[in-house]
Design brief:
alpha+beta, Fructose-1,6-Bisphosphatase, Chain A, domain 1, D-Maltodextrin-Binding Protein, domain 2, 2 domains, eight-stranded mixed β-sheet, five-stranded mixed β-sheet, 8 helices, disordered C terminus, binds 1,6-di-O-phosphono-alpha-D-fructofuranose, EC 3.1.3.11, magnesium ion binding, metal-binding, FBPase_N, Fructose-1,6-bisphosphatase class 1
Length: 358
């Protein structure tokens, strides 16, 4: 029996480009550079305790106020170094940097912006659980001029491409260029990403949900209602049993949901009034939202499609619910139904402590 002919990522991108005869090739070059960065990070992560980069960076805190792992810093460096020289970028922005990154003068600049979380779920790294990288490609609104924060504040619907790499038992790169979602598995012998999961689709229904239940006392009523119903299982209104998962690595959760359906919630809650949600809009919610929607699923703030949100700052946080379409629709419906009840709670009303925009 002959093994199936599989396209490499490069071949796949060349085939995609044939649909756009006037394309310069810059975009393909950008995606291949991102893929190279992911391969390099995969290799570093795979060394585990034998390699450098385990542990915290001597108490360093990133712009999010979170403890930085050495691998966060190393992965950020890899993304910058691999992508700055390629001539297709006007600038970059990352979870690990307070300000946008300017392409050094020694390199040509290009028409795209790259936004990324270099190592999502890095709290899992010391315990050898899957982590990943997430990226989003936008058009630079001002050509190759020096970039400003404002340039990056584009709604998720205007992303040109988005993807993630998951560093699990196998390393995979999952990519959308706005024409469906394709998954590539890293062939360690060839050093190439091979197309193994063409046209990925999120099943519309599911019996699996993922939420950090330790936050339940801070949830808004619609989220509590949804989770209570799932927990009630067959004996409750949903008349079916649900399974719960929580990996604390959104990339790994998104990948599971792409493979077999499910719903993920990190909703806006009342835990910290200064943070309208845990996840970051530009380099977590938007790229994952774009991928999930391109695979036939849905991504929402709980109230409205996340890809419609106009960002107001580079590191903006937001509530995020994504996955199987019918479950996300249901959660949005519960939020809409709940408005009057919510308004009765003084903490959530118009003048309340936790009043927040979408
Ligand atoms: P990092 O990007 O800082 O590693 O954060 C990971 C994450 O944003 C996301 O991947 C998880 O879903 C979430 O945090 C886990 O949060 P909890 O600590 O509340 O479980």
């Amino acid at each position: 029996m002959t093994s199936p002919h599989r396209l490499t990522l490069t071949q796949f991108l060349i085939e995609e480009r044939r649909r756009f005869p006037h394309a310069s090739g810059d975009f393909n070059s950008l995606i291949l550079n991102v893929a190279l960065a992911c391969k390099s990070i995969a290799r570093k992560v795979a060394f585990g305790a034998l390699g450098a980069g385990q542990g915290d960076v001597g108490g360093a805190i990133n712009v999010q106020g979170e403890t930085q792992k050495e691998m966060d810093v190393v992965s950020n460096q890899v993304f910058l170094q691999v992508n700055e020289w390629c001539g297709c970028l006007a600038g970059m922005a990352s979870e690990e940097m307070a300000e946008p990154y300017q392409i050094p003068d020694c390199y040509p600049k290009g028409k795209y912006l790259l936004v990324f979380d270099p190592l999502d779920g890095s709290s899992n790294i010391d315990v050898n659980v899957a982590v990943g990288s997430i990226f989003s490609v936008l058009r630079a609104p001002n050509g190759d001029a020096a970039v400003t924060e404002q340039d990056f504040l584009q709604a998720g619907a205007s992303q040109v491409a988005a993807g993630y790499a998951v560093y699990g038992p196998a390393t995979m790169l999952v990519l959308t260029v706005g024409n469906g979602v394709n998954g590539f598995t890293l062939d360690l012998e060839l050093g190439e990403f091979m197309l193994t999961h063409p046209a990925m689709q999120v099943p519309p229904d599911t019996c699996e949900f993922a939420i950090n239940a330790s936050n339940s006392r801070f949830w808004e009523p619609p989220v509590k209602r949804y989770v209570d119903e799932c927990m009630a299982g067959q004996t409750g209104g949903r008349c079916k049993d649900f399974n719960m998962r929580w990996i604390a690595s959104m990339v790994a959760e998104a990948h599971r949901i792409l493979m077999r359906g499910g719903v993920f919630l990190y909703p806006r809650d009342s835990k910290d009034a200064s943070k309208p949600g845990r996840l970051r809009l530009l380099y977590e919610a938007n790229p994952i939202g774009f991928i999930i929607e391109q695979a036939g699923g849905r991504a929402s703030t709980g109230r409205l499609p996340v890809l419609d949100v106009k960002p107001t700052s580079l590191h903006q946080r937001i509530g995020l619910v994504f996955g199987s379409r019918n479950e996300v629709d249901r959660i949005e419906r519960y939020h809409n139904d709940a408005q009057p009840t919510e308004m009765m709670n003084p903490l959530f009303n118009e003048h309340g402590l936790f009043r927040m925009p979408a």
